[in-house]
Write a structure and sequence with these properties.
Chain lengths: 317, 585
């Protein structure tokens, strides 16, 4: 019975996040449309939701072209890496009490490790394409993601110190006993959100693919479902980051009892997904070197101060 | 800035030249526009042009060729097969000057002046491309508008103007390969090296198809990492031979072609053309037509600036503003549609007036727009211009000084962003602008942000002008009563035989404009736009020269983008506000 339940959660997660990613394609356009005084997709099915399906069919039916000048093996491997890494990241997310795939005692580290692996996808995709725009995109993403990785990890260490555990379930339980981490770890929260956007390279941190500068950046040469994998990977990253923010800083499944815990988790994550989408509509893109100096000169000291302060509090209070 | 009567200066300047170069033979030509026009000899060309620059003519405004071989009404002009016309501007004195040098067909060359006026570089390439006049000592005299494989020189009178006069065009694989190979960029031709001692440079073709080049425009970048070491802009992909078409369309039927030069400027393009023709024909346009024209032109200025505003934000990565601004532009185009029946290319101005009177209810629509727009502009101000990321991206990026701007022929908002307080509408008023009350926004830094700033402020000023048009629209005819007005007022044709005859002739054949030369410059959406028309007393123009603002603006891109990053180049391109049709014509 126990084992069967795990399978249910695994496949539930799989279908949930893939379905979610497909729906997000539609949802993002629709939400942006409303924000930008446009209609957005509204023709296929009710509210245009059939667009998600149509998009999937289109991606599968498109010619899957591998440029003759590309490094064939790496070119094919690259898009799979991001989807794999992101999916594995979901393994440690606790959706509700007892509903999770694995309660690793190093859950947080596992999540950070998986998001780091996603860098390879972008980097290898950019290099294997043998295209100048893709190369520039790959270069940018390598630098950007490696730098923001640092703050992302550090920003969570305050939470780990207070909880005394890397397990995400423990983190939620701590929050149930005390208060949501967004209050004591507000700086950590802000840094994590910013690093999270940079990790999933969405606007305003979409420099690896900045379409106004690099056409499509690292995935310029990709078409069909290989491009689709990058896109799905990006949406999976978006969902994963939202889930993580909720778990770590907003009490995970916790909420007033009139709704079941899972619904609370869903609602909170959804709110953050909307926030990320709307952020895209609002903010311009900083320049590459500005982004880096913002990271190293502002974010890093901020995180370190946060870390020091938290350490002091844990030690002496 | 005072406007000095030009003819006086003309003679004065001819006298000055005569004193300075006693051996040179000069010929002063009288033109309809009363701009000083002096024929000089090739042997003294460089000295005279250097002297011209030292006498306060800061800008080489235009340089073009004319094929004189078929011209009948030359009236004692010095003999020449081809003339090269240099058009200079002095902002300080508010004067213009035209120098002409004639060459014969067998010996068609003149010395290059690119070291005196740097922006002569592209103009000379164009003149060589179009007329086959060689410019000696030019650093890279390649074709600029026509493809490198083109045979012949397109604006020569013996070059066919229609496809039917040429062999059928075929593109087989062999030819395709040849054409593609011809387009390959060879750094050595441009004096670039593929590597220096530490670095191997990357050469990146930005364009001709790229999301941020606003059309078909190629910039080849020499890159060290993402840093731009050098850049070579390549134009001509949008060339449609608008100047050649001017020579086979009648004066009247050419009007729609002008719309498509700066395709965001709509009827603003008609204005210098019809004013130039009217000057040659001696037509005095009634007041109502003048005010209608100004109102429409300013509406299109707003429309163009809104497109700029949105795409500028978009090119630095801000996604939303362009949608808001396009919906405002839609409101504006609806007014244009109600008045003219067209949207982007109404071709609505006519020789002697405008096509129709304003429709009933136009004032309600315009007033609605005037009420709507200011509060939207306030929103955009906080959304775009006050956004700190956007400021970071555009402050101090793509800077040129006032002197550089003058050297490179930069006009319009790009010039006013460097602290140059000059606007044709105020300082050399045309078409009735002297009756209006408005300010000319001027900023000092000459960077991408200030260029945007000027345009944003201009929207407000244009609204002011439109409001004045709305409140003071004169009554009266919308077309001049003149035989060359095309078409003449239809209502009168049934009552007097003269108008009937003119109507018949002007509609079926087209108006015949007396021989002469005339140029009119206006403050167009993107800078100074000039139509320099030569009539040989026929039903169509002998030579139509279109001086567009975007052409020199693109030429100076390498100057301001060296040492910056690719994203900076994108911000620069966005801040220049060009359309490729306005560059290539």
């Amino acid at each position: 019975m126990e084992e069967l339940f795990i399978y249910v959660v695994i496949f539930g997660t799989l279908f949930g996040v893939f379905g979610g990613a497909a729906i997000l394609v539609w949802f993002e356009r629709r939400l942006l449309g409303i924000w930008q005084d446009r209609l957005g997709p509204n023709r296929v099915g009710p509210f245009g939701i059939g667009l998600a399906l149509a998009d999937i069919i289109k991606l599968f039916a498109k010619e899957d072209w591998i440029p003759p000048f590309a490094d064939r093996f790496v070119f094919v491997f690259a898009p799979t890496a991001i989807v794999m890494a992101m999916l594995l990241g979901f393994a440690v997310v606790p959706y509700a009490p007892g509903i999770h795939i694995a309660n690793l005692n190093i859950g947080l580290l596992f999540f950070l490790g998986m998001t780091s692996l996603a860098v390879y996808s972008v980097l290898l995709g950019g290099l294997a394409s043998n295209n100048k725009y893709a190369l520039l995109g790959g270069l940018r993403s390598a630098a950007q993601m490696v730098s923001y990785e640092v703050f992302m990890g550090l920003s969570l260490m305050g939470v780990v110190m207070l909880t005394g555990s890397f397990s995400l379930v423990d983190i939620v339980h701590w929050q149930a006993d005390n208060y949501w981490f967004v209050i004591p770890q507000f700086i950590g929260f802000v840094v994590f959100v910013i690093a999270g956007i940079a990790e999933s390279h969405r606007l305003p941190f979409d420099l690896p693919e900045a379409e106004h500068e690099l056409v499509a950046g690292f995935h310029t040469e990709y078409s069909g479902m290989k491009f689709g994998m990058f896109m799905v990977g990006e949406y999976l990253g978006l969902i994963l980051i939202s889930c993580m923010i909720v778990t770590i800083f907003f009490g995970g499944w916790l909420g007033p009892a009139f709704l079941p815990p899972f619904i609370w988790f869903f609602i909170k994550s959804f709110a953050f997904i909307c926030f990320f989408i709307l952020l895209r509509a609002a903010i311009p893109r900083p320049r590459y070197d500005q982004l880096m100096s913002f990271g190293w000169k502002f974010m890093l000291p901020l995180t370190l101060i946060n870390l020091l302060a938290t350490g002091a509090i844990v030690l002496w209070i | 800035m005072s406007v000095v009567a030009e003819q006086v200066v003309s003679d004065e300047f001819a006298l000055k030249l005569d004193q300075q170069f006693p051996g040179a033979s000069l010929y002063v030509q009288r033109t309809i526009d009363e701009i000083a026009t002096i024929w000089i000899e090739r042997s003294h060309l460089r000295e005279i042009i250097r002297f011209t620059k030292n006498s306060g003519f800061e800008m080489l405004f235009d340089l073009c060729g004319v094929d004189e071989r078929m011209r009948e009404h030359r009236d004692g002009l010095p003999a020449a097969d081809f003339t090269i016309v240099y058009h200079f501007l002095s902002f300080r004195q508010g004067t213009e000057l035209r120098l002409k040098v004639g060459v014969s067909g067998e010996d068609a060359n003149v010395p290059s002046i690119h070291d005196i006026y740097p922006n002569a570089n592209w103009y000379e390439r164009e003149a060589w491309d179009m007329f086959g006049v060689t410019f000696t000592n030019h650093p890279n005299l390649f074709r600029i508008l026509l493809p490198p494989t083109w045979e012949g020189h397109a604006l020569r009178k013996d070059h066919p103007a229609r496809a039917t006069e040429m062999e059928p065009f075929r593109m087989d694989f062999e030819r395709q390969d040849k054409e593609q190979e011809a387009l390959r960029f060879k750094p050595e031709e441009w004096g670039m090296t593929r590597r220096d001692k530490n670095t191997e440079f990357m050469f990146l073709n930005l364009g001709p198809n790229h999301p941020s080049v606003h059309g078909v425009f190629r910039i080849v970048l020499q890159l060290d990492g993402e840093v731009i070491v050098d850049a070579v802009p390549e134009i001509g992909y949008h060339h449609r031979g608008a100047e050649k078409m001017g020579e086979r369309q009648t004066w009247h039927t050419y009007i729609p072609y002008t719309d498509r030069i700066d395709y965001l400027g709509g009827v603003m393009n008609n204005l210098p053309y019809v004013m130039s023709v009217e000057k040659m024909a001696g037509i005095e346009v009634p007041d109502r037509a003048k005010v209608i024209r100004i109102m429409m032109a300013e509406l299109f200025r707003i429309s163009s600036h809104l497109v700029f505003y949105g795409t500028f934000a978009q090119d630095v990565g801000q996604m939303s503003p362009v949608f808001y601004m396009f919906s405002d532009r839609e409101r504006l185009l609806r007014i244009v549609e109600a008045i003219t029946g067209g949207r982007m290319h109404p071709a609505w101005f006519r020789i002697g007036g405008v096509a129709q009177d304003l429709p009933d209810g136009w004032d309600v629509m315009v007033r609605d727009f005037l009420d709507w727009m200011p509060k939207r502009l306030k929103q955009y101000e906080s959304m775009v211009m006050k956004n700190s990321i956007l400021r970071q991206r555009s402050h101090g990026i793509g800077v040129y000084t006032k002197e550089e701007a003058l050297d490179w022929g930069v006009t319009g908002p790009g010039l006013r962003a460097t602290g140059m307080d000059f606007d044709w509408r105020r300082d050399k008023p045309y078409g009735g602008y002297d009756q209006f009350d408005f300010e000319v926004p001027v900023y000092q830094n000459g960077d991408s942000f200030d260029r945007a700033r000027v345009r944003v402020d201009e929207i407000t000023q244009s609204l002011r002008i439109i409001e004045q048009c709305l409140n003071n629209m004169p009554a009266g005819p919308y077309k001049a009563i003149h035989p060359q007005t095309t078409p003449p007022p239809k209502e009168r044709t049934m009552f007097d035989i003269e108008t009937l005859i003119h109507h018949f002739l002007n509609v079926s054949w087209g108006p015949v404009i007396p021989a002469g030369e005339c140029s009119v410059t206006i403050e167009a959406t993107k800078g100074a736009n000039m139509y320099y028309l030569t009539s040989d007393g026929g039903g169509s123009s002998y030579r139509t020269r279109i001086r567009t603002p975007s052409f020199p603006h693109l030429q100076q891109i390498p100057l301001i983008s060296k040492g910056l990053l690719i994203p900076d180049l994108i911000a620069i391109l966005a801040s220049i506000d060009f359309v490729m049709a306005d560059v290539d014509r």
